[in-house]
Amino acid sequence: MGRFSDLLGTLNSKFKLGIGGPQLKNSAGVIQARDTADAAYSAMAALLFQTYGNDFELNSGAAGSGADWKYTLRRPSTGMTLALTVVMPSGTPAPGQAITVQSYSSGVITLEYTTIAGGTDKPVVDTTSLVFGSAGTLAMYTAPANAVHQLYKIVIDTAFTGAPTMSIGIAGNTSKYVAATQIDLTAAAGTVFEIDPGLASVGTTEALIITYAAGGAGAGAARILDEYVIPS
């Protein structure tokens, strides 16, 4: 029998693996993998990693300030009816793509990268807020090439005072889609103006803007919804 054939543990709080190797450390009941000098955490590799709690923590020792925060992945604590396996997508995504379900079978969820594009069956709605103190030129968003603007909704949340005006368009053509004469910002709260510009698409992107004149307004708020599609 070897001298340590029945070794069950150590009274020390650390156990080093080899000369100059990493060590396992007891820190308030938590097992830590530390480097040989106990100055930093050491990497661990395993064929299968199992955790019996609901949380998987990244950057557990975060300072909790600045850009140093903990990130937690959590299993739902209720509602599950079987064990699930999630298979992440292969390859790399393109900007703007989303992770969607490619297939599901017997508890295995396979994900993939999918391009979510506006189309005749996929309208996209952009929302911009306008208040009485907004700048004279308010950026909305950049419409993609070939977008067809089907409907503009201007929703008055709080009636504007004074004599304000607004239009929707692009630099150099600030009333391309909605003219100031089509909207009354002083209308009662809850009023909705709906405008179909009836214009054909253009083959390039467009940076849409709201051109606003306060006209002495001291109160008022509205939402501008732009619904567009990219015809297939």
Number of helices: 0
Give the strand line-up of the largest sheet.
9-16-11-14
CATH architecture group name of the largest domain: Sandwich
N- to C-terminal distance: 78 Å
CATH topology of the largest domain, anyone?
Jelly Rolls
Radius of gyration: 30 Å
In round numbers, the mean pLDDT is: 92
Number of strands: 16
Order of helices and strands: EEEEEEEEEEEEEEEE
Q: Residue ranges: pLDDT <50 for 5 or more in a row?
A: none
Q: Into which percentage range does the β-strand content fall?
A: 35-45%
Structural class: mainly beta
Report the sheet with the most strands, covering strand number, pairing sense and barrel closure.
Answer: 4 strands, antiparallel
Text of the CATH class of the largest domain: Mainly Beta
- Residue share in helix: under 10%
Shape: elongated
- Provide the number of structural domains: 3
What this model shows, in words?
The structure is a single chain. The mean pLDDT is 92. It is built from no helices and 16 strands. A hairpin with a 2-residue loop joins strand 2 (23-27) and strand 3 (30-34). Helices cover 0% and strands 42% of the residues. The protein is mostly beta strands and 232 residues long. The strands form five sheets. A four-stranded antiparallel sheet has the order 9-16-11-14, with no helix packed on it. A four-stranded antiparallel sheet has the order 10-15-12-13, with no helix packed on it. It has three domains: 12-80, no CATH class; 85-114, no CATH class; 124-229, Jelly Rolls.
Keywords:
single chain; 232 residues; mainly beta; Jelly Rolls; 3 domains; 4-stranded antiparallel beta sheet; 16 strands; 0% helix; elongated
